[in-house]
Amino acid sequence: MRSLLLILLISSVCIACGPSAPDNTDTSTSIEPASTKGSSAVSSAPETVAVASPAGEALPEDEAPSSGTIEFDDPWIRMVPSVSPNSAAYVSITNGTEDAVTLTGINSQVADRIEIHNVEVDAAGTMSMFKIDELMIEPDSTTMLEPSGAHIMIYGLKEPLNEGDMVTMLMSFNNQPPIPVNFSVK
Amino acid sequence: MLNKGVIIAIALASLAAGYFVAQSSRPKTPVIDDSVIFVYPQTRSLAAVSLTDMYGQSITPADFKGDWWVLYFGFTFCPDACPMALANMKQIKTRLPENTNIKFGLISVDPQRDTPDRLKEYVTFFHPEFYAATSDAEAIDALTASVNVVYAISGDQSKDDYSVDHSNFMVLLNPEGEHAGIISSPHDPEKIAVELSKLTAS
Ligand SMILES: [Cu+2]
Question: What global pTM score does this model have?
Answer without folding.
Answer: 0.74
